[in-house]
Structure formats: structure tokens, C-alpha cells
Amino acid sequence: MEKLREKNERLGQPFEYNIVLIGFMGVGKSTISKKLSEICSMDVVEMDQLIAQREGMSIPEIFETYGEPYFRDLETNLLIEMQSKRNVIISCGGGVPMREVNVKEMKKNGKVILLTAKPETIMERVKDSHDRPLLENNKTVEHISSLMELRREKYEAAADIIIETDHKSTVEICEEIITRARA
Ligand code: S3P
User: Fold this and answer.
1) Among 6, 61, 92, 101, which residue carries the largest CB count within 10 Å?
2) pTM value?
3) Where do the DSSP E strands lie in 47-155?
4) What is the rounded average pLDDT of the residues 143-149?
5) Contact assessment for residue 94 and residue 148, using Cβ atoms and an 8 Å cutoff
6) Share of the chain above pLDDT 90, in %
7) pLDDT digits (tens, 9 = 90+) for 165-180
8) SS3 for 78?
9) Residue 1 has what pLDDT?
């Protein structure tokens, strides 16, 4: 970890752009953002967390009270707002790259990193949580797998860099992000 921090310092910082992490629910965007922010001394904007904080309710409550389109508009507005920032890590909710306008916004000042994992890995990571309305009543590898397939094309089209996360440690993934984003 110390070595990685030194390596990042040698490579020169700050980033002149934002690091935008995208990927399926449970792929590890929040965990990676947190570690990357420690290594690179960058702030993190955790989109879901900020939206929930501003609305004063959880993501499932927002879905239930106002519906999904309302939540998706909040995501778009937040991304637009983020364009005034530089050198921050933006951890996107899994559905953000589905809207073309969102992808356009994130690409304005950001390098877009897609994290991927196998459906079985995702299942392991989400099975005990209850904060994802789109999985709540259908937490199966089959459902995850088919939703992932539906989203794959848009995820890949949005990405500047694609990083597989299966069988890699958090630090290894961060190292790969730093090396490839700097290249
Ligand atoms: C969603 C992903 C969630 C959250 C909401 C919808 C999605 O974020 O924004 O439940 O459509 O994939 P995470 O990817 O952080 O779980």
C-alpha cells in the first residue's frame, strides 16, 4: 500500500480529470473508490450516498415514494453538477451508464473505468444486503446474469478502461486503475 502510494506520487498527481467508476451493482465500486481515494489523496463522490443524503431517505425509499424515473433524474442532475470538479473519484450507481446523456456528461471531464465481475461473484457480494430495489425480490445468479447481459453493451460503450475484478485484491485493482489511467 505504501509502495503504491509512492508509485502514484512518482507518477505525478493530481489527475487533471475525474476518475469515474461504473459497473454492475455489487461489483465493488464503493470499496475501490475508498481505497483509491486513500492511495491518491482524492475526494470521493459516492452518488447513491449523496442522493440519499440530499433526499433524506434511502435509495429503496426514493424508488418506493417517487418511482425509478425520479431517481434517474436525480442521478443525471448530480452528474451534471459534478462537471465543475476535477481530480475527484465519482462512484456511480450501477444504472448510470444506461442513459446516453449521463455518459456524455461523465466523459466531459472524466476517465471512465468499468469494473466487471462474474454473476456468481456479484451474487456473493449482494446476497445479504437490502438496499438495491432492482435485485430485492430476485436475488439469483440467473437474474443478475440476464440484467448484466442487458446492460453489457452500454457499459462497454461508456468505458475508457475495462478492469476485471474477479480474484484480484482491492489494492491490485487500484494499482491497475492508476497504471492504466496514467498511460
Ligand atoms: C442501481 C444500482 C444501485 C442504485 C440503485 C439502482 C442500478 O447502485 O443506484 O439501486 O440500476 O444498477 P450500486 O451499483 O452502487 O449498487
Assistant:
1) 92
2) 0.94
3) 88-91, 110-116
4) 98
5) no
6) 90
7) 999 999 999 999 999 9
8) helix
9) 64
Query: What number does the ligand 1 atom closest to the CA of 133 have?
Result: 10
Write out the three cell numbers for 49: 450516498
- In the chain, the amino acid numbered 66 is Y
| Residue 96 phi, psi (nearest 5) | -55, -45
Q: Is the pLDDT of residue 47 over 70?
A: yes
| Distance in Å, CA 48 to ligand 1 centroid | 7
> How far lies 45's CA from each of 26, 107, 127, 157, in Å?
17, 16, 25, 22
The pLDDT mean for the chain works out to 94
CA 103 to ligand 1 centroid distance, Å: 16
Q: What distance in angstroms lies between residue 6's CA and the mean position of ligand 1's atoms?
A: 33
Q: Residue 134 CA: which ligand 1 atom is closest?
A: 10
Q: Whose CA is nearest to atom 4 of ligand 1?
A: 93
